Amino acid sequence: MLATPPAARPPLHPLHALLLAFPIALFTGALLADIAYLQSAEIQWTNFAAWLNAGALLMGGFVLLWALIEAFRLRRDRVRGRAGLYALLLAVMWIAGLINAFQHSHDGWSSVGTTGLLLSIVSAALAIAAGWIAHSGWRSL
Q1: What does the pLDDT look like over 28-38, one tens digit per residue?
Q2: What b/e string do you get for 12-21 counting C-beta neighbours within 10 Å, with b at 16 or more?
């Protein structure tokens, strides 16, 4: 039986890649809902953003746990550094999302405002950056 060459292996475990797609899509959706709320002042948009943010935190927690285990499991320093950066981005993303969830729990206009929008931008940008790093060739050994 032939071993799969390293270049042919996927950069991430397929389940990990699937889980990572959720925070990317949900944090980005929460950002778009915040922008829609700021443009229309329709309160339902802030409700959408809060639920999208909660879903991103739930799935992002599983992704973060997997990334931390993977970062500690890797053997080579170069790959471990990249996995560590990936885990760090996910951790900061999750913390920014959690603070954003607290911000969205406020009533009315104060639920989004400048702070909520900034936190949504940071969460979405970090999720996209983590996805970029994860899918750019990092291979687990």
Answers
A1: 999 999 999 98
A2: beeebeebbe
